[in-house]
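We examine the record.

___
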Amino acid sequence: MSNLIYLDNSATSFPKPDVVYDFMRDFYKTRGVNPGRTGFDAAIETEELVFETRKMLMELFNGDGDPNRLTFSYNATDSLNMVIQGIAEKGDHVISTKLEHNSVLRPLYHLQMNGFIEVDYVAFDGKTGYIDPDDIKKAIGKNTKMVVMNHCSNVIGTVQPVAEVGKICKDAGVMFIVDGSQSAGAVEVDMQAMGIDVFIFTGHKCLMGPTGIGGSYVMENVTIKHTRYGGTGVRSAQKTHLEEYPYRLECGTLNIMGVAGLNAGVKWLQRKGRDVIHNAEMTLWEKLRSGVQEIENVRTYCAHNEENQNPVLSLNVENFEAGDVGTILDVDYNIACRTGLQCAPGVHEVIGTDKIHGTVRLSIGPFNTEEHINLAIQAIAAIAEMRKN
């Protein structure tokens, strides 16, 4: 592990900053109690940390001012299920895109399969990797309830024109739900400027927190019906689940260790500077992109320049299965990456890799170095040379 070249940061950032590990351990040892249930000092201190984290994330995403509308869940998939199912009503029309992760596709599919909603999926340009906002506009009909799309593709790294889509949605009176799993902590998120009604995030990627923590910020104009019920520690005699936030989307005891780790991760990100980290990662991405594109028999997808891009590169080596390339990188070169469809089958349908079992995805994080990238380029060149011989 000490020699591991980790290029799978789109799956989860690794390693985490030392301060995240240290704070999680120390906080949980001293204040790992249940917040909001009683009034002893440790519980009050824990509740203060939870509220501080809500406020910090609300400000990071530029929500509309109420930290309690920042709610925590297991992860982005968990929040997407609550939000999509909590907004959709029978007969609604929903617009999404071919760029989506299964955390969006499957909740929509199950609602559609059960005859509850209609869904249209807007394609993206298979050469550039971006949707055309006008295609969203054209798809909006009389019964369109919401547009659900990701901010950044987990397969090809393209950062989508969400501000343009947000304006279209606002003009049409349609709710705009954004999956920020790959963008939160990486690029600017301004819910007010971008016209985003609900922003979904996960803690374990660019926000540098642990797994098992994520959530959403819900703007004041949005109504989400309950899909879960349970204890909140507040007004226990009431038979129905509470209407107000954060309790509306939170049931039971929070993942306190996860919140603590997320708190430390966001503070580390802010100290280092989000743009500083992103620019350094994109410098490495450009080196990786230009290096592998010079290798004969290697094909990259939607990787032309650094503009509106996250440090994610998908490629294939001619006459190699993507999975085999990943295995060789792991076993022979100690390089960790992701292969296959990356839980986003629609992307692969558009770029033409669905029939060849996907791509090899290399995703860069804040702890990668120029040496890591040089070794990855050399390894891919060696694999391509193997097939020639």
In short: The chain has twelve helices and 13 strands. The first helix runs from residue 18 to 31. The radius of gyration is 21 Å. The chain has a mean pLDDT of 96.
